[in-house]
Amino acid sequence: MDYDLLLNGCCEIGCRLLGCGAEIHRVEDTVRRLCAAYQVDGEVFAIPNCLIVSVTDRQGRIHTRMRRAEVRGIDIEALEGYNALSRRLCAAPPEDPGQIALQARQVEHGLRRYPPALTLFGYFIGAFFFAFFVSGGLMEAIAAGISGLMAGLCLLLLGRFQVNFFINTLASGFVLAFSAYALLALGLPVNIQVVITGSIMVLVPGLVFTNFMSDLLTGDIIAGLSTFARAVLTAGAIALGTGAALAICLSLWTFPGGSPALLRYAPALYCLFAFLGCLGFCFPYNVQGLGGFLCCLGGALGWAVYLATQTFTGNPIYLPTLFAAMAIAVYAEIMARLRKCPTTSYLVISYFPLVPGFTIYQAMDYGIQGNTQLFLETFIRTFGIAGCIALGALAVSTAMRIIQHYGKGR
Length: 410
Hints:
- About 70% of the residues lie in helices and about 5% in strands.
- By secondary structure, it is mainly alpha-helical.
- The longest helix is centred in the C-terminal third of the chain and has 38 residues, at about 370-410.
């Protein structure tokens, strides 16, 4: 057994999973199972941008490898490809461990990716329908779609030059808000709050914030704090960028005092808007084929449960969020087993209607303005929502593990 080749292969698979957005526990479990396939005891430690793997040979000597992971964002197609590869390797490990890294690179070459034009279209569609989702009208949806498109264009352009994520998000937030206020100054009759709320979905770190809560609840303290720091920095960058755009726009133009009233839609329409809004984000997150439709169906299902729970319990936020998160998690577990892919593929998109992304932005905005009371209130509410989502997902995944363990025991 060449332990150096085994460590190289394990680190290659683990770092590629980290790079495409896999959860910490998934990365550690995958590498641990890969070591076990070669009948080797492996110890694994991962944080969002680093992986350490240690194995013990038959003579009792310890071999350790540490690799830094390049995190490029969430890529569902890549995540499913590397997950499928790890399942094949664990079921039939190649005699030569050097094949592990080679097959991982082959998976990379075979991945499908959307062209930039379709990715930008996804940003437009996501912001467009989420403006309806937050009770806007057609004008607000058009303005939000254009603002989201401009922010997405900024994200792609700066991403090609590998600009720091904080600067990239700050610039994109500036472009987003400037575009929205420019449309208002041109005379488009819109509710600017709805436009900003719908379009800012392309930037908000709501899912990152939820992952931070999930990491903490599962005991990954270091990974959780690291993810939390990134979420706070991202929200701060959005608040700074949009705040700078607002200051400049107020000095350039005079805006009308009133805003169009919010609209109220039938519950079924809100579920449809959730479905279509999630569909837009399938392009930036590279969800291919039938999986995109199924992910969006999960988003609509979650919002239907949210509205039903809100109606029957009278609780405005927390209980509906918890039950909706549990419904999405159950749906994701079922789909993952039917399609042999990670639950992450469904949770990433399906949670979009629930994630507290805009409230994170609001909290940071209040903090920058010096409004301590509103900052604390909004931040606590954000923690509560994120905690409910993470707790719902954790409860379902724990129940599934218990059922699996009981079934294996029998």
